[in-house]
Amino acid sequence: MPRVLLLMPTKTYRASAFLAAAEKLGFEVVVATERAQALSHFAPAANLTLPFLEPQAASDKICAFAREQPLDAVIAVDENTAVISALAAQGLGLPGNTPESALAAMEKHRMRHILSDSTLLSPWFKVLSLEKEIIRAEANQLRYPCVAKPLFLSSSRGVIRVNNDKEFLQACKIISTILDETAVRNVSPKLADQLLVEEYIPGEEVALEGILTKGDLKVLTIFDKPDPLVGPYFEETIYVTPSSHSQAMQKEIATVTKQAAAAMGICQGPVHAELRINKQGVWVVEIAARSIGGLCSQALRFAGNRSLEEIILRHAVGENIASVRRESLAAGVMMIPIPKAGVLKEVAGLKRAEQVKGIEEIKISIPLTQKVRPMPLGNRYLGFIFARSKTARKVEIALRAAHKSLLFKID
Question: Number of H helices and number of E strands within the chain?
């Protein structure tokens, strides 16, 4: 029976999906979190507490644990544990990415430096200090429109399009507010005093979900994003698959993703890439050494009624996934945006929304009475809507209709 270690931050959306997949496959699971779990002392061989903010120390602890309790794979469930996973795999002699490549996928400026030295299309960029004097001086020198963003963080948090110097200065204030939060600053204190400014790339946006095996890319699917992501904020809403792009374009998207991963040294395990397409070609917006975030993986189903997490686990223990194919039905997910800041008091219209043809499930992921914040300050969604139908267009229509049926009372 394969034995895998899952690196799971306590606030991850992904825990239940990976645990369910492991149970279905009959894998033995060790769960590693940054906080000791209640009753974990009753099953010490199945639980591990790690200092997630200290990757090398966490890796050393994993390797010591594995000497007594051998592991077949170490899997990062979310992006902020990818470096730990890489270090541990290296220490245990397991297949994995290098720590340097995992770090480059987490830190946006590293990715930009690497890709700018490749033959791929790459926007101009600058790394700036958030000191007021430097920001004011740079505001008049930048080429607009451009995008300002933190050097780390995910889910488009703090990513802002600016069209002039006034908007740039305002964006810097917003980003500073986010980076001054204790929980954010603790992740990377050195990077929390800087931001990345890069050229705004116009065009349609897509997302590629894949798995790498020694650098060879297996494309699991390409998602279209039918809502225009033009700013000022880049809150993602709808993903639908299969893509409406031509086979030639989908092949180009896959080729660019594989080349970008190779340039960054990402060669093993799941990969999630965000790309933009325009007249110049295909641009890499971001590439992550992990699978799709949130609960979005539920939109993916593979032959044999297998989940994305099952595919990732099978691959991690050395199984061949070359024959894996996505189901024949079109599918999609809508990440329900937060319309305003406040306290979530009520969710109305849920039954009506669930009755929309094509809707499979609606999950409200924020409990009532919880505070909510919209993008760019926030980093969560109100929930997720899932749909399946014969065509991607019908999926999109179902998602929009279900969302329109929902009413959120936020005080």
Answer: 12, 21
